């Protein structure tokens, strides 16, 4: 596969709306600003994000849930949730916020736009660090996640790629994505996560392998607390090649939740950037179309460090370990370096335990029957055929034709000059999907 610059999904609205997420306020700006400080935009195709439509969101989420989100307009500070709010998961860990439906359309749109980049073949790697919200369910919000942009992106990818491998490196089990595809043979979910009594969401044990028609198409590697790079890399290096060989995916979606990093306030693992980077290298080596997403990551400087490094790896760029001065530079003290230092906390995962898990997973993979027909649980056949018809009309246009007004209405990609960070002087080519 020839190298094409990775697509980086960006838009001022995507950043500003992601900054409003209660669990990670202003994190999106911090990540984008660090990428820009390193001038990584020069090694990327910057694609302007387009908000998701109501029909896009209905590919997974219930209309009842979506319509309820529309009821949140300008909320008073003393707004108290009611029974109906809590029925849809709006409450303690997913608090109500003003104009929630708009936020959901923008956040979901980032990952759907990234998926379109892979559908069009304009890149081999598409990146949306504002996405990766893997806990949201069909009928409601859950675990800081108001919308499951991952499932919506996978559904878009399935218009072209018959088999999708979903990899989850977040410290929390990606229960929302696994639940969406627990009956499916066309999406394989592979998760490496902390699994301890009382640790959210409480799912993802090693015997959780899918249900009925999807039995064998989920793989969970439950890890004890304080797992390190050595433990993760050992688990990943032994399991990922087996899954890739057995399932033979056409495309890969990789959630790189940064809450597995050392000293994350909601984590409990002891990873550094090197553990994630090693896993990413193994995925990139498959030369399959890859969608990279964010997720958890509640130490914002470390999340920015990690995702900047992963972006550089995807782009084939080496970065100086000294963080360039920019608006958020003081937050990277006291060392002001890009690398994340390891912890001295003892890893509770023994080599014997990891080997036992690997052996069990090998047995579980024997349940996988890749010769059976692909099962499509999320949409009616008629809906899928309509989507394929629409998406087959995507075209790439690098210049605006003088007679464009006479062209048939179609989705197009054209370049416009814009600032990656509006208040800065550095400019980058930014591409729009336009109808």
From TrEMBL:
Cofactor(s) it depends on: a divalent metal cation
Annotated catalysed reactions: N(6)-acetyl-L-lysyl-[histone] + H2O = L-lysyl-[histone] + acetate; N(6)-acetyl-L-lysyl-[protein] + H2O = L-lysyl-[protein] + acetate; N(6)-(2E)-butenoyl-L-lysyl-[protein] + H2O = (2E)-2-butenoate + L-lysyl-[protein]
A Pfam match: Hist_deacetyl
Entry binding sites for substrate: 93, 143, 298
Domain of life: Eukaryota
Keywords: Chromatin regulator, Chromosome, Cytoplasm, Hydrolase, Metal-binding, Nucleus, Repressor, Transcription, Transcription regulation
Active site residues per record: 135 (proton acceptor)
EC number of this enzyme: 3.5.1.98
Any one GO molecular-function label of the UniProt entry: histone deacetylase activity, hydrolytic mechanism
InterPro entries in UniProt: HDAC_I/II, HDACs, His_deacetylse_dom, His_deacetylse_dom_sf, Ureohydrolase_dom_sf
Location(s) in or outside the cell: Chromosome; Cytoplasm; Nucleus
Domain Histone deacetylase stretches: 22-313
Protein name per UniProt: Histone deacetylase
Organism placement in taxonomy: Eukaryota, Metazoa, Ecdysozoa, Arthropoda, Hexapoda
């Amino acid at each position: 596969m020839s190298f094409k610059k990775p697509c980086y999904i960006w838009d001022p609205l995507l950043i500003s709306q992601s900054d409003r997420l209660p669990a990670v306020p202003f994190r999106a700006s911090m990540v984008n600003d660090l990428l820009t400080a390193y001038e990584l935009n020069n090694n990327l195709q910057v694609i302007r994000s387009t908000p998701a439509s109501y029909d896009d969101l209905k590919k997974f989420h219930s209309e009842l849930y979506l319509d309820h989100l529309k009821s949140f307009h300008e909320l008073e500070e003393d707004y108290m949730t009611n029974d109906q709010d809590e029925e849809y998961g709006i409450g303690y860990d997913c608090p109500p916020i003003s104009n929630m439906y708009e936020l959901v359309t923008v956040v979901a749109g980032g990952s759907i736009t990234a998926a379109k980049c892979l559908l069009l073949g304009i890149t081999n790697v598409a990146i949306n660090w504002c996405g990766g919200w893997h806990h949201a369910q069909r009928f409601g919000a859950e675990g800081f996640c108001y919308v499951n942009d991952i499932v919506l992106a996978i559904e878009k990818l399935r218009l072209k790629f018959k088999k999708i491998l979903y990899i989850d490196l977040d410290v929390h089990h990606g229960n929302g994505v696994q639940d969406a595809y627990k009956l499916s043979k066309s999406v394989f979910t592979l998760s490496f996560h902390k699994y301890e009594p009382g640790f959210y969401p409480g799912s993802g044990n090693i015997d959780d392998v899918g249900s009925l028609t999807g039995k064998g198409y989920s793989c969970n590697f439950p890890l004890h607390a304080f797992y390190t790079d050595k433990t993760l890399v050992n688990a990943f290096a032994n399991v990922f090649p087996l899954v890739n060989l057995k399932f033979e995916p056409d495309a890969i979606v990789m959630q790189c939740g940064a809450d597995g990093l050392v000293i994350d306030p909601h984590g409990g693992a002891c990873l550094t950037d090197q553990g994630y980077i090693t896993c990413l290298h193994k995925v990139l080596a498959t030369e399959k179309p890859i969608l990279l997403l964010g997720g958890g990551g509640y130490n914002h400087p470390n999340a920015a460090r990690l995702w900047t490094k992963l972006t550089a790896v995807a782009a084939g760029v080496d970065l100086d370990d000294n963080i360039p001065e920019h608006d958020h530079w003081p937050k990277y003290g006291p060392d002001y370096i890009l690398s994340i230092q390891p912890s001295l906390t003892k890893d509770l995962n023994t080599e014997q335990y990891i080997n036992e898990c690997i052996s069990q997973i090998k047995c579980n993979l024997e349940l996988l029957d890749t010769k059976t027909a692909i099962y499509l649980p999320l949409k009616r056949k008629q809906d899928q055929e309509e989507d394929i018809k629409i998406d087959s009309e995507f075209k790439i246009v690098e210049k605006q034709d003088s007679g464009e007004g006479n062209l048939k209405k179609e989705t197009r990609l054209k370049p416009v000059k814009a600032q990656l960070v509006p208040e800065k002087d550095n400019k980058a080519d930014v591409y729009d999907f336009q109808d």
